[in-house]
Design brief:
By secondary structure, the protein is mostly helical. The protein contains four helices and no strands. The longest helix is centred in the C-terminal third of the chain and has 36 residues. One of its GO terms (cellular component) is endoplasmic reticulum membrane.
Length: about 140
Amino acid sequence: MHQAVRFARAGSVILALHDASDVFLEVGKMSKYSGAESLASFAFILFVLSWIVLRLTYYPFWVLWSTSYESLLTIDKEKHKVDGPIYYYVFNSLLYCLLVLHIYWWVLMYRMLVKQIQARGQLSEDVRSDSEGEDEHED
């Protein structure tokens, strides 16, 4: 378990990167639900920009670089011949899966951004929530 603790620093940085962009998402949601469309559009733009900087730039080029290459320097290969590499491969595999999810979610946000530009700044319905509001139209 000794080796797993060393990944806690990377986990804290990942948590901070994710929480920083989530603030704009929550402000945008509250603004959308309260009817403040211009504030919702502005918050969505800030969310997209923070997503690009934090999750598509810093995360892969700073965090994944550190966990993939720099962490090899801290693993004591003599003391932990088996569990060191296991932690390394499990954690990094999960972190790369998270990057794939970031890219998938970016595609969804990009579609929403294009719709917002076409609608001249008004946020359209969320592309992720197909089932929201379907109950209202049932007969």
